Amino acid sequence: MVNRRFILSIFVLLPPAAFSSGAHADVFELQRNGNLVEISRTAWKPDLPSNVGGPSDSEVSLLSPLSQTQSTIRQHIEVAATRFGVDSNLVDAVAWQESRYNPRARSSAGAMGVMQLMPGTARQLGVRDPHDVQQNVTGGTAYLRAQLDRFGNNVPLALAAYNAGPGAVLKYGGIPPYRETQNYVRQIMRRLSATSAYRAGY
Q: Considering the domain boundaries, does residue 72 fall inside one?
């Protein structure tokens, strides 16, 4: 699945069908006492309209102590992006869309952490603690690199594969006709167009 030797030397990957980040519509925060607390859609807003910015300061405070973690998360993003040859703005945009940088976010499907890794995907990527920011970001960036390799560095297709799984992209010969996946790709491409050299041609 992953064409890069340096990735294969570090990670043991399952066949493509085993990987899927799944839907992340319902998001929960795993508290330190082990309880799961649902983050409402009012606060979460994963699929924001094009004319609406990110969550407000009060909403961000519900998700994670962003002021304490954002700098650390972005440092890990820079390191992982360099390691796997992925634009750091792309990794950053995925992290934002997936969890709003919340290391303890958890979706109803079981995806965890900043990059919202599914448990099986995390295990195969060598991520022992999905809530550990460094491990999660490293694993998520490696998985994103694998999708870029699989789809010829086509960023929208790689993003669709990250969200819906590469099997769905292959099945439909492009971005799957899932509203969540199409919104996911659209939102990230818009964010990239404002933060990097990417152009949102999707």
A: yes
Q: 144 lies in which domain range? A: 25-151
Residue 102 counted as domain residue: yes
Say if pTM beats, i.e. exceeds, 0.70: no
| Three-state secondary-structure class, residue 112 | strand
Instruction: With respect to residue 137, please indicate whether it lies within any of the assigned structural domains.
Output: yes
Average pLDDT, the chain: 75
- pLDDT tens column, 43-71: 333 333 333 333 433 333 344 444 557 88
List, in sequence order, the alpha helices (H) in 5-129.
Answer: 5-8, 41-44, 57-63, 66-84, 88-99, 119-124
Structure confidence by residue, pLDDT tens digits, 151-184: 999 999 999 999 999 999 999 999 999 999 999 9
Catalytic positions are 98
Q: For the chain, how many structural domains are there in total?
A: 1
* Torsions phi, psi for 8 (to 5 deg): -60, -30
Find the CATH number of the domain harbouring 100.
1.10.530.10
- Asked whether residue 28 carries a pLDDT value surpassing 60, the answer given is no
Please check whether residue 175 lies inside any domain of the structure: no
Q: Take residue 96 and report the two structure tokens written for it.
A: 């934002």
Contact 141, 81 (CB under 8 A): yes
Closest CA to 68 of 44, 37, 101, 35: 101
